[in-house]
Amino acid sequence: QVQLVESGGGSVQAGGSLRLSCAASGRTIRYHGMGWFRQAPGKEREFVATIAWTDDNTYYTDSVKGRFTISRDNAKNTVYLEMNSLKPEDTAVYYCATKYGALRPWSPSDSSSWGQGTQVTVSS
Questions:
Q1: What is the pLDDT of residues 43-54, one digit of tens each?
Q2: Dihedrals phi, psi of 109, to nearest 5 degrees
């Protein structure tokens, strides 16, 4: 099992930027799809972005396309989420997750491992 720890969350004004990091331990992430999910108050946990294990193809939910960028550094066992042009509706707890062998996005219930989450708050 991969252990995941997120960092980089915080409070920013609308239009600002944040860079989230997810550090993995326990085993290499090389053969794991990696992703970011988020959960806002009163809402279900939802897919934000994923990156495939084999070809680094990326996928994004429509609401963040053009604003967020997911990347991975297998040598550092780390996944990143660069968030630009943040909006108040982006406010949520952001979770890093993994699914072994994943090439495309998956539902939250299919995740192999979860991080503890990091809070992102965007004010108007």
A1: 999 999 999 888
A2: -65, -15
